[in-house]
Design brief:
mainly alpha, 76% helix, elongated
Length: 442
Amino acid sequence: MTAVRIRNEPQSSLALMMGLCVGALGTLVLVGWMFNLAVLKSVFPGLVSMKSNTAIGMLLCGSALAILSRTKVAMPGRFWTTMVAVVVIALGALNLGEYLFGWELGLDQWLFRDADFRVGISQPGRMSPATAFCFVLTGVSLLAASQPASMRLRRSILAAQGLALVIVSGLAFIGYASDALFNWRWWSYTGMAVHTAAGFMLLGFGLLALGSNKGGFKWSLDALTTGGFVTGIAMLLGAAGIAYHFTLQLQESAAWVSHTQEVLKEIGGITAGVASIGSSQRNYINTGDDRFLEKEAGIKDALHQNIATLRKLTADNPRQQPRLNQLDPLLDQRIDWGEQTIAARRKDGLSAAEQMIATGKGIELNNSIRGVITALEDEEYSLLDRRQKKEKSISSTTFLLLPLGVFLSVTLLSLGLFVLNTGMGERAQAQEKADWLASFPE
């Protein structure tokens, strides 16, 4: 049996260290899920947690990277890393399929049950699309790294995929930092947990180190072409960031419109409840039939529940809270007055109840309640109008910007294609000239 030696190159040591760190990260998060330790699952309270299937993927990727960092990888090791690569690709691709095609494969909750519906979570237990995409990139890279070193484009695949992982996870880190420092949400709200981003960044650097081992890269593009491609990548990232920003604004605007409609629904419930109580009390006073009062207790409870719900829904609006403070005692007075008329009807008959009604107190209370409810509705309808206009404006801007991202991509790819063609043409001409000069005898 041939002994396996660890590479002495610093790149190999870096790849080994990165692989071990990623494997340890996945193990710690799995321990957090096993013992329900929030600090291991989400690092900080309120942040998105690393899902259990993500942790398993990290453990597999880290172990495969550590094995591939050795100088000689035996056949069992190559077979293991190949299988890990296939599993990781399948894990990422199946999760992307769940998002794109609405599949319900049960991958989200197959190991641990998760009920996390916080910001950035579309399905509990499901890794984000960005995380799934990064797993596909990592799996392809590990599959290429498992092949013989003589494989064509092996180094290029490792370098390109490693750089892509560093960029994607780095953008997630920048998003978390911008939210913490400037309260500006963008890339961090793609649903990738902060330690998931850290894991993919380590994997990216590890793949770059693995690809640059023994001889490194020979960069053949000139400075102008390289600068053009870097500028194009930056412009694409900027366009994606702008599109994401407007999409997030559209989502938030739609949520505020829905919120306002929910407030109006609760206000409508109060209006209906007051009208229902008045109707049942009038019918009882006119007929003396207790059946008209059977649902009154439930209606009164519903009114108090409507008020409590409205207080929560309008907690951000200082103009609505004083109106609710005014409405609550008015409803209690109206309910008490109605109970007094019912008691008078039962004790002294119809005439006594009619005398109480003739004082006009009930009409006065109803008018006061109606006035407060009208003020509540006017405020919410005004907010609804402004929010619907904002939603329409953001929607128009968003759908105008989406095609621009495609047009920008086509433009940059076309420019890069023709710049490369020009460079290759100049190189071919220079080679022809060199061959022509070489054809003359010294």
